[in-house]
Amino acid sequence: MQRLDPRSIGILFVQNIRQFIWPAAASMLPIINSSGKSNKNISFVIVGLVLAGFGLLALTGGLITYFRTRFGIVGTDLVVKKSGLFRQDRTIPLSKIHNVTIRQGLLERLLRIATIEVETASGGGAEAKLSSVSLAEADRLREALMGSTEAQISAEADVPSVYTASLKDLAMAGALQNRSLYMIAIVLGIFGQGIDNVLEAIIDRASKSGAVKYAEAHPLLSVAVFAGAFLLFLIVGWLLSILYSVLTFYGFKVVRTVKGLRISYGLINTMQTLLPIRKVQSVSTNASWLYRLVGVSQISAQSIAGFRPGGEGGERIATGSTMLAPICRPETLREVMTLIFPGLEFERVQYHQASPFWVRVMMWRTLMTLIIPTVGGSLVLWMVGRSWAWVPFIPLAILLIAYPMVRLSYKNLGYAVKDGLILIRSGMISLNHWAAPITNVQSVEVTSSYFQRRKGLADVLVSTPASISTIACVDEKAARELAEYIIVNSYGHGRDAI
Amino acid sequence: MQVETTGWEELHPAVCKVWRYSAMLTGLIPSIMITGLVALFTRVSRGPVLIFAVLGFILGLLLFVVVPILLATRQYERWRYKLTPESLVIKKGLLYQSERHIARDRVQHIDINSGPFDRKFGLVQVVVYAAGATGSVGLIPGLSPEKADWMRAQLMPRDEILAELKQKDLEADLAEQPQPSLEPDAKA
Q: Distance between CA B75 and CA A262 in Å, rounded?
């Protein structure tokens, strides 16, 4: 058993500071605001004390974690012990490890240390997180956990990789992802306080310079200015989206190793994940309408463990989904699919169509979800005695475009059972595929609404431990047969998958 | 212990009473909410508040207490479960019907729960969990404790099955041994 690297205290200190920064700022705001000029010195002292308090807290946190934690490989188990008030002895059998990630933030790269995260089947997040292990130790652990060393990995540089993303690809991925508005929202959120002041100042100056009067005289001009500003925001958001994509997925590379797929990427924060192919529960591909226009798609694999970096602050969102390719051409898609599901000719799969009755079911659902709030809202307004009780009826206009949209979605629906796999296709203007070996399915549900039953139709929900997908509107008898077929063929493989 | 199967089994008839009692309790909350909303709007539109509030309460009771109580028997008639050699199948639902097949060897653990009404009628619920973050995959209400114990024994992995699965694990591990074509050296 051994301790973490002493440098971990520094890393943990910085991580804690990041956590404390908002409460600290929040607690200081009233002090700064309330202070008049007379007691400025006192408020500075208080602010200093508060800062020092938070700093001390962060440092103590780091020290406690460092002194509490011991870890090591004992026999065939990874053991992580935490002593102190809340003791914890965690033993993870090496064979149960699903996923190992070596992560380096900017500071960690400077200090030449890394964080190791180990995951097993019980989702939710990393089961063992070893913050700040020296690179040599990380390499040793990696060898024990993943069966490959740094030397092997550098040798793998000669092995042709399954997938690599060039800078151009990543820029395109960023450009095609509809993230610009989301990006603007983030920027506004961060600088929210400041923007108010800036806007006020602009309006103030404008009214002083007589621009407001000018705009009032020329209403078209102000519309043009607003449109221009909006366009500018969109372009900025779009550029930020490209930048985000490039920074996050820089050097995206998937290599096939003896133990599984090794995925590595990142410019500022680097990620290295090992995903045993045997532990992949399902694979899904997604192509938004922009992606479809260019003829590319995104691939991700669902395993019980796994996470992706969640945008800001580097926190992780446990999704059970590992990105295999942020953007790829059909030939790469085919290659990756055959690698994970040998023998599958992804592009030649013939899908069973859903029943055309699905269109009517969806139209009814849309109508119902629109009508209830509309009628309800209108009734309330009418009771209150407003003359504009007709306003809630406006959203019903959606029905006009609903039909073509539902028709489009219908075209994309389909399922196939082929070579021990179940494949499901769906999407409206985007196109999604989901594929899983039947042996990974743990439950199947045949559901039918009243209207579906009248037409002898049913939906089938297929669940693997990591994902659920729905086959919409198929013949009820076929649905039952399919459910039984899947369960009978999945039985006896329970321990293969998990 | 042998792997046993059953035909379509019914729940214990007393479960209807459990459902009716629960409906009385849980239906009160939405009824009171409806009453409050109706009273508020009547007040805003300057109508007779008391009359409308009482009407609203009666409507709430009808929707959330009386209807579930009346439907309990029909719901009970639809509720069926069966054990096949490979799976546990649960069939239920009136308007929205579902038939769920859970592979027997995927069951990770089983809870046997009983609420206050369950206990009053000497019943328990069996909750079936599988791997992954999806939580429980199946629930069978209204079982006698003996039946629940039998069900648990049937669904939990037994010794001989575990041995068989271990063997499979070993084979899979052997299959995953390094293959020459994947070695970097061989490529060079």
A: 51
Contacts of A46 (CB under 8 A, 6+ apart): A31
Who contacts B78 (Cβ-Cβ below 8 Å, separation ≥6)?
B91, B92, B93, B94, B97
Cβ-nearest to A465 among B85, B99, B131? B131
pLDDT digits (tens, 9 = 90+) for A9-54: 888 888 888 877 777 777 766 666 665 555 667 777 887 888 888 8
Closest CA to A138 of A110, A109, A115, A105: A115
* CA A337 – CA A331 distance, rounded (Å): 10
Q: Which of A85, A63, A55 is nearest to A4 (CA)?
A: A63
- Interchain proximity B103–A490, CB inside 8 Å: yes
Closest-approach residue (CA) in chain B for A484: B101
Q: Assess B34–A contact: CB distance below 8 Å, yes or no.
A: no
Yes or no, beta carbons of B184 and A156 under 8 Å apart:
yes
A343: left (phi over 0), alpha (psi -120 to 50) or beta: left
φ/ψ (deg, to 5) at A4: -70, 170
What ipTM was reported for this prediction? 0.78
CB contacts < 8 A (A, B): 126
Distance from CA of B106 to the nearest CA of A (A): 5
Interface test with A, best of B42, B87, B88 (most A CBs within 10 A): B87
A487 vs B101: CB contact, 8 Å cut-off?
Answer: yes
In this complex, is the C-beta atom of B99 within 8 Å of any C-beta atom belonging to chain A?
yes
* A3, B38, B45, B49, B124 from B42: Cα distances, Å: 69, 6, 5, 6, 45
> What pairs with residue A82 in β-bridges?
A69, A88
Q: Which residue would you say has higher pLDDT here, A98 or A471?
A: A471
The residues that bridge with A471 in the sheet, in sequence order, are A460
Residue-wise pLDDT tens for chain B (188 aa)? 567 888 899 999 999 999 999 999 999 999 999 999 989 888 887 888 889 899 999 999 999 999 999 999 999 999 999 999 889 999 999 989 999 999 888 887 788 888 899 999 999 999 888 876 555 688 999 999 999 989 988 887 665 555 665 566 666 655 554 444 333 333 33
Mutate to test the interface with A, among B8, B43, B90, B99 (most CBs of A within 10 A): B99
Provide the pLDDT for residue A36: 55
Residue B96 contacts A where some CB pair is shorter than 8 Å = yes
Q: CB within 8 A of B39, min separation 6: which ones?
A: B49, B52, B53, B56
Q: Which two tokens stand for residue A402?
A: 């609903």
**Cα–Cα distance, B89 to B81 (Å, whole number):** 5
Structure tokens at A446: 């045949």
Residue A29 sits at the vertex; the CA angle it makes with A28 and A31, to the nearest 5 degrees, is 65
Q: Which of A414, A435, A417 is nearest to A426 (CA)?
A: A414
Q: Among partner residues A159, A383, A463, which is closest to B41 by beta-carbon distance?
A: A383
The encoded tokens of residue A453 equal 């039953």
SS3 A414: strand
Q: Which amino acid is at B20?
A: R
Cβ distance A321 to A301 under 8 Å? Answer: yes
**Partner A contacted by B95 (CB < 8 A):** yes
Q: How far is B132 from chain A (nearest CA, A)?
A: 5
Kindly state the greatest CA–CA separation across chain A. 83
Residue A71 and residue A130 in contact, taking contact as beta carbons nearer than 8 Å? yes
In the block, residue with structure tokens 């929040």: A26
**C-alpha to C-alpha distance for A494 and B103, rounded to whole angstroms:** 8
For residue range B4-33, list pLDDT tens digits in order: 888 899 999 999 999 999 999 999 999 999
